[in-house]
Amino acid sequence: MVKKKVIAGLGILSSSLIFACPAFSQDSSSINLDPIVDKWQSSGHADADAEAFSHWDEDGEISTGCARCHSSPGYRDYLGDDGTAAGAVDNAAPIGTVVNCYTCHNETAAFLDEVTFPSGETITDLGPEARCMVCHQGRESGPDVEADIEASGVTGDDEVSDDLGFINIHYFATGATLYGAEAHGYYQYDGKVYDHKFDHAEGYTACVDCHDVHSLEIKVGECNDCHTGVNSVNDLHDIRMAGSRMDYDGDGNTAEGVAGEIATLQARLYIAIKRYTASVLNNPIIYDPQSYPYWFVDTNGNGRVDSGESAFSNQYDSWTARLVKATFNYQASQKDPGAFAHNAKYVIEILYDSIEDLNEALDSSNRI
User: Which residues, including other chains, have CB under 8 Å from residue 215's CB and lie 6 or more apart?
Assistant: First the structure.
């Protein structure tokens, strides 16, 4: 029923687009929207049954804290397109909407050219990709991690505090990855230097250059112009350019795709986290990417998520400043499945430094 209502509204769309988006400058009668609608209907933005849009069904409305990115009215409220002040969601949104045509094709969104990230950093002089990054930026940042640690009052990196806990960047924070140190989305360790925005190649530096704006699919056919042998999304994981021949993960393989370098570092960071919690905190931890709040007590200490362990009541409860930093970065890298393409070196630096920091607390036999 929800999808039918959404689609029914598309019949009056073409006349609106002329005023909402500079890209539609021709007479509306010449626009064939069918291919665009077909693409949109196949995307996650149109999936009304997805958790991203249906999570609040039992509540009857979407709260102001979530409506910005999980409803069309909330997004437009945040932009100020509904007449309210821009930069905040003033009203809870009704359930039953998705990211539809009007979400992005309205007079306010069409001229959006800057985005402020959770860190407080503002990226300016943007194009259409600004509309994407209003949501694809995460909800927490490195400075938020630092602020929580400072507020807890701990005096050392390995002091357990009930006032600390896991901080979740949220999901698909691709803008934070893409802009690296400029957005300061991940936790960046003091004294380290981090890559800024990843400028992929001329003509392919923004979200909308690599992703179809309606289906959201990657334009794989265009990748093959430079990356030979790329015929599918899976092939993207095998890309390794001549400028990235360093063995970042230390496994001796410099021919694997840069995605493989990141995957190995993620695995090693997880091992370091488990060794730290087991040997330093005497309370082993496990991670379940499908179960909130993701980090749980490893009750039998076997290093695996067993039945019943990823229950909310068993969430991990021995948090230190060092652990909060490392788990934040691990989750941030996991929840951007395209991190290897968005800004590989930034993510590699983050993962490497997270491991290095945990190693400082481990004895020599336990270090990664």
Answer: 39, 40, 42, 43
